[in-house]
Amino acid sequence: MNTNDLTLASTALRKGEILHLQHALGQRIEALGGRLWITMDGDLRDIVIDAGEGFTVDRSSDVLLSAMSDAQLIVLLPTAKAA
């Protein structure tokens, strides 16, 4: 995979900014830079990912991504399963 393609499709968040994902089940959040705190509606876990790490949303809920430092991320949509 060409990582330049990921950088072009990425989203930048400044420290303290928040990104809201609705109905995010199956979406994969990849941190390309910085640190992200992931909060899911109704979930008690604290999920923190750093550059090079990722997390796949495992529940049907809204998700808040909070930048704990200036961050760059990409959100990958789930792929359709073959029949």
Name of the CATH first level: Mainly Beta
Radius of gyration from the CA trace? Answer: 13 Å
Q: How does the helix and strand content classify structurally?
A: mainly beta
Strand and helix order: HEEEEEEEE
What strand line-up does the widest sheet have?
Answer: 1-8-3-6
With helices defined by DSSP (H or I, 4 residues minimum), what is the helix count?
1
The number of distinct structural domains comes to: 1
Summarize the amount of helix as a percent range: under 10%
Question: Any guess at the CATH architecture?
Answer: Sandwich
Q: β content, as a range? A: 35-45%
Oligomer type: single chain
What is the rounded distance between the termini?
26 Å
Low-confidence stretches: none
Average of pLDDT: 89
Tell the overall outline.
globular
Largest sheet: 4 strands, antiparallel
Number of strands: 8
CATH topology: Jelly Rolls
Determine the CATH superfamily: Jelly Rolls
What would you note in describing this structure?
The chain has 83 residues and is mainly β. The chain has a single domain, classed as Jelly Rolls, CATH 2.60.120. The chain has one helix and eight strands; from the N terminus they run αββββββββ. The chain has a four-stranded antiparallel beta sheet, with helices on one face. It has a four-stranded antiparallel beta sheet with strand order 2-7-4-5, with no helix packed on it. The radius of gyration is 13 Å and the shape is globular. The model has no long low-confidence stretch (mean pLDDT 89).
